[in-house]
Write a structure and sequence with these properties.
Blueprint lengths: L20 H19 L5 E8 L6 E10 L2 E8 L9 H15 L4 E7 L4 H6 L3 E8 L4 E9 L12
Length: about 160
Amino acid sequence: MTASPQPEPRTDLVVTDAPIPADIAAISDALDRFNTEHTGIADRKPLAVLIRDPETHQAVGGLTGRTSLGLFFIDLFYLPPQLRGSGLGREILRQAEDEAHARGCRTAVLYTITFQAPGFYHKQGWKRLGEVPCDPPGTSRIFMSKELAAPTGNSVRPR
């Protein structure tokens, strides 16, 4: 006797450039549950170091990412032009790396673009993993990683 074929599940595929936060959360949460089921580790957590305007208290720059399964992923890092070259970027990165290490992360990963900040990250001890060409021609996304050390604690953390 031959088993009857299983019906295909009904799905609607939608291509969009404007997913709503609930859609992103549904995918992210489902993947997190899958990872937790397979690893027994439930440690995914956002990490941000924000620069706030002292008058409006609105974020004007900073770093966002997440920690999970021993890795720190940097998603976005923006420093307003008037604050570049002041050491603030280095301090933001240090604070994020220290927090990630405190959460048990051993390694950090990111990508940057050739016209953004690969030299900045290299000066902070990041190593190039590889690169993938992108537009405009002659430009690449550069993937980098860094082994995280114990926090140095040599800087004062502004609150």
